[in-house]
Write a structure and sequence with these properties.
The protein is α+β, with helices and mostly antiparallel strands and 371 residues long. 32% of the residues lie in helices and 22% in strands.
């Protein structure tokens, strides 16, 4: 195989991994000859310290899969030096480490004709296939299908796997954003001259849009300008399962490095004047806040109860067969009287037909009245 050709490409940082060493710097997958299917081979070797770090750090927690906390991580991306690159697999990719087949993420099915299904973009943990020894080299074989005008890059790193709890601890250690920042943002939003209608206050919630429960660590990215926060712990747990790093409020990118705990809303949720069962607050033009007034809530509750009572009454009237029968009977009596008066004027025979002796069955009355 040809000598590795370093690629001037930077891959995006993965928040759930700390890099401890570069085992194979980003290297181009060189196309040789005119064949569509290409093959390349690379070698890397661990230092004694790296081999020790991997071997002595295993996740031995109850219920864990005895996973390595220090991992040998393989990543692919497009050959493009104009911007940081995210993970992406070359087409028809096949990887062997020390002659053992490497399991790759399953391709996502597609309905598009003549389009090869793409694999989910993620790094690959090849630790279990490696020789964890500083003496023996590790050999990686890669087969892929070349595409005209598109090059590919491969790289291998020694990384330490982090949990959502680790990232949450780091976020807290970064400190909270000064409450004054959010207070000024509230003032700006509520005193904006561009709006024709002045807004004197604004109702917001301290419930997380992800879990619908009160936030414990309210945060939002420095890149977003909305007031609404989300719960840092829940957000990190969701990205640990499926890393999208997308703001749950506005869907814009919410990168881990841009997350900040919001000091203003942290004060709000810790304030004893906010009832435990209440998650909505009113923001004022001067940047202060207060809980939704009790009277308003009680009035709302009373109104709901009254509406419910009215519904219940209607419901009883409609479903009460006996009452319905009586109502129809009394209505029927009125109709039969007027009917008999009119009938009497027209014909004695008709009147005698319409006004019979008082019957015992209400169903007969209904039938006659309808006639």
């Amino acid at each position: 195989s040809a000598a590795p050709q370093p690629a001037n490409v930077k891959l995006k940082k993965l928040p759930f991994y700390d890099i401890h060493g570069e085992l194979l710097p980003p290297t181009s997958l060189l196309v040789q000859g005119s064949s569509r299917f290409q093959e390349a081979q690379f070698q890397f070797q661990l230092t004694p310290q790296q081999a020790t770090d991997i071997a002595s750090n295993r996740d031995i927690r109850m219920g864990s899969k005895l996973d390595y906390l220090y991992q040998v991580q393989l990543r692919f991306c497009p050959l493009d030096s104009t911007a940081e690159q995210g993970d992406e697999f070359p087409p028809s990719i096949c990887v062997q480490v020390n002659s053992k087949m490497c399991q790759l993420p399953n391709p996502i099915p597609t309905n598009k004709p003549n389009v090869e299904p793409k694999r989910p973009p993620k790094p690959i943990n090849i630790t279990s296939l490696c020789k964890l020894s500083p003496i023996f080299p590790n050999v990686v074989n890669i087969k892929w299908a070349s595409e005209f005008g598109k090059g590919w890059v491969v790289g291998i790193w020694l990384v330490e796997k982090l949990s959502s709890e680790d990232l949450l601890g780091r976020l807290k250690n970064k400190g909270t954003r000064n409450p004054e920042f959010t207070r000024d943002l509230i003032k700006k939003k509520l005193n904006d001259d561009e709006d024709e209608i002045a807004t004197t206050n604004l109702k917001v919630t301290v419930a997380c849009p992800l879990g619908k429960m009160r936030m414990t660590i309210p945060c939002r990215p420095s890149t977003c300008d909305h007031l609404q926060c989300f719960d840092a712990s829940l957000f990190l747990q969701m990205n640990e399962r499926k890393p999208t790093w997308q703001c749950p409020v506005c869907d814009a990118p919410a990168l881990y490095d841009n997350l900040l705990v919001d000091g203003y809303f942290l004060e709000v949720i810790k304030d004893p004047i906010l009832p435990e069962e209440e998650n909505e607050i009113i923001l004022n033009q001067d940047g202060t806040w207060h809980p939704v007034p009790k009277e308003t809530e009680e009035a709302k509750k009373k109104k709901k109860e009254e509406e419910k009572k009215e519904e219940d009454v209607d419901c009883v009237d409609l479903s009460d067969d006996e009452g319905e029968g009586k109502a129809k009977k009394s209505a029927g009596d009125g109709e039969s009287e007027s009917g008999s008066a009119t009938a009497a004027a027209d014909s004695d025979d008709e009147a005698s037909t319409i006004v019979p002796p008082a019957p015992t069955n209400p169903a007969d009355i209904e039938c006659i009245d309808l006639e």
